[in-house]
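quick one: flavin-adenine dinucleotide bound model?
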Amino acid sequence: MQAALDELRQAFAGRLLVDEADKAPFLTDWRRKWTGQAVAVAQPDSAADVAAVVRWCAQHRIAVVPQGGNTGLSGGATPDTSGRTLVLSLTRLNKVRAIDTINNTLTVEAGVTLQQVQDAAREAGRLFPLSLAAEGTCTIGGNLANNAGGVQVLRYGNARELCLGLEAVTAQGELWDGLRGLRKDNTGYDLRDLFIGSEGTLGVITAAVLKLHPLPAAQVAAFVAVPDPAAALQLLQLAQSRLGAGLTAFELMSDTCIALVEKHVDSARLPLAERSPWYVLLEVSDNVDEAHASAAIEGLLEAALEQELATDAALSATLAQFQALWALREDISESQGAEGRTIKHDIALPISRIADFIATMGAEIERRWPGERLVVFGHLGDGNLHYNLSPAADRLGAEHRAAFEALEKPINQCVHDAVVAHGGSISAEHGLGVLRRDESARHKSAVELRLMQAVKAALDPHGLMNPGKLLPPNQEHSE
Ligand code: FAD
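yep, here:
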């Protein structure tokens, strides 16, 4: 192994990390929940070099863990502890290759950060609408590998719907050029859609053709107090019927979430005179101007107050206010993390069943685990909730840590069983990784698992691409 590693080191001078201290930042995930080992961390700067590294791994039967910004929340980018793994960091594949404002497409390499993609689109007078709180660090390759969602899926779709073509390196180290900027292409199995959402288990994404949209002329946000999730759902319907495609985000959060943000972020303030058990943050994008957007949102809020779907609302009048309202939503995740241990669920439900789920699940959690705090927020317009828990306020000390951690498995099972019973999914946008891998397998039919296993075996016959992620190890094909 050492001789083979020396050979790779020579070929990739300066782009292969083997010292423990150099490798360390790549071996632990963003939440510091998982840590692994790797023979090396490779940092290639071209698709051809990615292919060469993967070929070397295939030849020496070393597993490959693709890694972008390492902001994933399911442990998908962290190697296992076998020591037979190489981390393939894509962050040096950071070029914008082409922009076509007539085709409305942007071709970028996998390691370009989401924020850089948004900036490149904006410089060309276009919008790339994928947006999430980790956008300064996460990469477009990671977004596609996870089929990321974020806050504007309601209007523009998730990462899959924003990608027209891909370039990828197969498990054998061949380069597949599927960088087609076509909106229609019915020429057989859709390999692009197979790689998207496969979490690095089928191959390595090296570049993508992304779909651009017109830049809106104005955006206005409203922070709305609502009595309960059922009222929030009625408000969603009202907003959709009045605003149509102008409604670009519709987020729900409980008062517990906002209280956590106020506790942990100095500048955070509730923009309303009185507290409410639930709030909605909605955003309108307008192609006329700010006054037109404000008039539309004011009309909606008047109707909502009249119908008692809302009790109060604050509207953004400046960019600073718009950003401050959004910060209340985007800072929830970090504020919950600052509070101590968390138990997280990223669930999707039919929108019509969300209010019932929140009511029955909340009662069940309180009955079985009294005092533990529910921290519920999410992209209501997409039917996606982050249904999280934090320890009870009087059980935050280190002495309670193990007891809270022991609740993770039974609470996961309880929540996921109810999600499936409500016709939902246990992973909406964060992927399975190792965190939800076994829970997902528990709920999939034998047929579905067998089909997934067959795809894996066909594309990665030696089980070297990100093993142990997405599918349980015994569902993978190995030599
Ligand atoms: P990584 O974490 O590096 O990798 C994620 C997975 O993709 C791993 O399985 C990895 O092996 C694989 N992978 C990475 N790059 C490639 C590649 N080039 N080819 C093949 N496989 C690859 N996610 C959402 O969807 N919506 C949100 O609203 C959201 N909010 C977040 C907020 C915060 C504060 C944080 C920390 C995370 C959030 N996430 C969210 C999760 C995360 O940011 C996304 O999943 C993101 O898409 C991961 O990108 P990354 O480059 O960091 O990928």
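DSSP finds 17 helices and 18 strands in the chain.
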